[in-house]
Specification:
Blueprint (H helix, E strand, L loop, with lengths): L19 H19 L4 H17 L4 H11 L19 H18 L24
Helix pairs in contact: 1-2, 2-4, 3-4
Length: 135
């Protein structure tokens, strides 16, 4: 497809990543998604698995669209969104709600900025302390 069409061709994950660690993370996402849809798993389990996979794919240099395609493919979700998919009342199924939650978590995780750990000597604000830290 041409680039003008806006379609994305998924580039394969680097061969070094196809090892046990990546396949284990993929299996965890796939299994957690299945359990969440069956009602035997928790959303937290699924979100944790998705976030770990997103971090690994991002650290491997995968762009956000490839990360989302990978996660959707692992869970057997459609890659394209149709107009009815954007209408909250069109499909209120548990699978749709879980997949929407999973995609939002993947996007949030991909763009989350990690804070550098604070030094042990730096003062920590107490609860309710709105004073900005000293520079």
């Amino acid at each position: 497809m041409s680039q003008r069409s806006g379609a994305l061709a998924a580039k394969p994950v680097e061969p070094a990543l196809v090892g046990n660690a990546m396949s284990k993370l993929e299996d965890q996402v796939r299994d957690a998604f299945g359990r969440a849809n069956e009602g035997s798993g928790s959303p937290d389990e699924l979100l944790g698995a998705v976030r770990m996979l997103v971090r690994d794919l991002k650290s491997a240099g995968q762009p956000p669209e490839i990360v989302l395609i990978t996660i959707k493919q692992l869970c057997g979700l459609p890659l394209a969104i149709v107009a009815a998919d954007t209408d909250a009342s069109a499909d209120a199924s548990q699978t749709k709600q879980i997949s929407d939650m999973m995609v939002r978590a993947a996007i949030d995780e991909y763009y989350m900025k990690r804070r550098a750990p604070a030094s042990p000597d730096s003062p920590r604000p107490g609860p309710g302390d709105l004073t900005p830290p000293a520079r």
